[in-house]
Design brief:
8-stranded mixed beta sheet, 11 strands, Rossmann fold, globular, 299 residues
Length: 299
């Protein structure tokens, strides 16, 4: 275990024990300043080694074409991945078929439910409610943890901290699609990246959420640094940022991509409609459009 990883665990433990106290807030704030300085140092080093300050931006449509997407479980609640990010995971699952999915950090389980019929099996590696309470998560977040678990087909739930879980114990078969959306601190992104890389199928895709901030342009450096340091440098040429999303992806060498130069230039046209589904969540779908190479997407 590295010194950085050890110190991170110590601070997380203290943070949970001193949650809400003045000493806890002051200590954690001080450590975060130090950690941000470390991230800046890594940023300078990695920018030199990687040769650029951000991932190449690639077109969403070039990966999947105009096939429609449909989301049956979407709440628009805080911390949700966006509808088009759900569509990204659906599209990847289709291309990898048969697909065996692993999600680190499932929150309400919306993404898992939206993969019904597209994957052969799913694994959720998520904190148990008791652990979330200890770490000071809001009560509503705890109460709705894996809200849709019973509506997900062929799902195995592993209640564990990804820092402590032995990934060699993941149920077979090897995962060929992984979505990393747990703790976004540099140390944990690096740790999760190294672990899933060791236990993925030979041809697989890894997706990291929050590689960029909400504007889809500003790089979230704790996550990006964790990705680069978690992967061998020989894999860096397969890393991309998918347009219209906050997601970084590691794609198989055999997949072709199409660069998108500027996110302010729309890649395509979408049409959106929203309706409430009978179970109380929002129903989302995407539909291919018409002429001119544009796509119509209905959410």
């Amino acid at each position: 275990m590295s010194i950085g990883s050890f110190s991170y665990r110590v601070v997380r433990n203290l943070e949970s024990r001193l949650q809400g106290t003045a000493a806890g807030k002051l200590g954690v704030a001080g450590y975060r300043v130090i950690r941000n300085l470390r991230v800046r140092s890594r940023r300078r080093r990695l920018t030199r080694e990687y040769g650029r300050s951000a991932l190449p931006l690639i077109r969403f449509g070039a990966l999947f074409g105009s096939e429609p997407f449909r989301l049956s479980h979407y709440t628009f609640a805080p911390w949700s991945t966006s509808p088009i990010e759900h569509a990204l995971i659906q599209g990847l699952a289709r291309r990898l078929k048969p697909c065996h999915f692993l999600e680190i950090g499932s929150l309400r389980g919306e993404l898992l439910a939206n993969l019904n019929g597209l994957v052969e099996s799913s694994i959720s590696l998520s904190l148990a409610k008791e652990d979330m309470v200890k770490r000071g998560y809001p009560k509503a977040v705890v109460d709705t943890n894996l809200l849709y678990e019973n509506e997900v087909k062929n799902l195995s739930v592993i209640y564990a901290d990804s820092r402590e879980y032995d990934f060699s114990k993941l149920p077979p078969p090897p995962r060929n699609l992984v979505f990393i959306d747990g703790d976004h601190a540099y140390e944990i992104v690096r740790h999760d990246t190294r672990n899933v890389l060791n236990f993925c199928a030979r041809e697989s895709v890894i997706v990291w959420h929050d590689y960029s901030l909400g504007d889809h342009m500003t790089v979230n450096w704790p996550v990006f640094a964790g990705i680069l340091d978690g992967l061998p440098s020989t894999a860096w040429n397969r890393l991309y940022h998918v347009n219209n999303t906050a997601c970084a992806v590691l794609l198989p060498e055999s997949w072709s991509v199409r660069v998108h130069e500027d996110p302010f230039r729309p890649e395509t046209t979408f049409s959106i409609s929203i309706s409430e589904n009978p179970k109380g969540s929002c129903e989302t779908s995407t539909v291919p459009s018409g002429a001119g190479g544009s796509e119509s997407v209905v959410f």
